[in-house]
Amino acid sequence: MLGDFRLFLLAATLATVIGAFLVPTFQRYFSRAVVHFHAHRSMPRLVLHAFSRGGLSWLRDGVSLPAAANVTQLPAGAGVSWKVVVLNVLAMALWSFCRFYYFAFYVIEHYVDPGWRFSGLWSFFLYLLRKQGKN
């Protein structure tokens, strides 16, 4: 169980760091979605536009990392210390893991198969593999 905890804590930390670097991309996507929704006033139309040929090419072209100037300002002490950055990453990783833990041990046991008791995440993955093999 401790190995599972460490593995998922590492995964949550890496996902948090990657997510922090992708913030400009998601801001760009969100602002474009707001403009499209303002013009058309339809969520289904917005979703269809996102998965159309033009929408997919825009999604591909819209991916960007933070500007180098923004990243290089972190060590210069531009108002945020490394301690704050590290603590923020750790807090978000812990929060992410707790949400995943809730999903894995509450939702799965209550909604996937209430009769089965999972002893850990590995037990759940083996359960899925066995169930997949039967279908």
What's a quick, concise take on this entry?
The chain has 135 residues and is an all-alpha fold. Helix content is 79%, strand content 0%.
Observed structural traits:
flat; 135 residues; 7 helices; mainly alpha; 79% helix
Could you characterize what this model shows?
The protein is mostly helical and 135 residues long. It has one domain. The protein is built from seven helices and no strands. Helix 1 crosses helix 6 (82-112). It is flat and about 50 Å long. The model has no long low-confidence stretch (mean pLDDT 77).
Give the N-terminus to C-terminus distance in angstroms: 29 Å
Q: What count of domains describes the coordinates?
A: 1
Q: Can you give the mean pLDDT?
A: 77
Low-confidence stretches: none
List the SSEs and their pairings.
Layout: H1 2-21, H2 23-40, H3 43-50, H4 53-62, H5 68-72, H6 82-112, H7 121-134
